[in-house]
Amino acid sequence: MRSAGLLSRGESGFTLIEMIAAIVIGAVILAVAGMWIVNVTNGYLLTRQSTTAAFKVQAATLRLEKEFHIITAVSSGSATRLDYTNDRGGTPSSHTLAFSGPPGSTIQLDGKTLLDDVSGFKLTYSSAYNGPFTTGWTPGDKVINLAFTISGFGGAQNTFSVRVRSENL
User: Fold this and answer.
1) Counting beta carbons within 10 angstroms of the beta carbon of residue 97, is it exposed (0 to 12), middle (13 to 18) or buried (19 or more)?
2) 119 Cα distance to chain centroid
């Protein structure tokens, strides 16, 4: 009769080497699975950040395009600031588009942040849509070009631009 837990001479169990080999193989499988999970997670984060940034940029450029389209007068314009009047809703009102500059660079419309994490910003002006552009507003200019750069995932720089000819200037 055998006692529980004891092996007789003809039976064998796992040796220490077999147990260590099983642990090593298991560790390799877990490491590969872990790397795969990290890659999937990084891909998800990249997609989420890129989508969020794209929505922000699209909203900002559409807003500025509408603003520039109905400008009736410009009081001053430089490479980083534009003071203008438009006739939104039938009532003339003054507005300011400005770049805050570092640190924490933002594009602001009337003192409210329109777009953040901006690393580059430039306004240029021209009298014709495909004419020569300058960084200072002059009477007779009808076209406003705005170019800005934002930092994306992993520090990638993405540049966007909006060029609008105002119908009322």
Assistant:
1) buried
2) 11
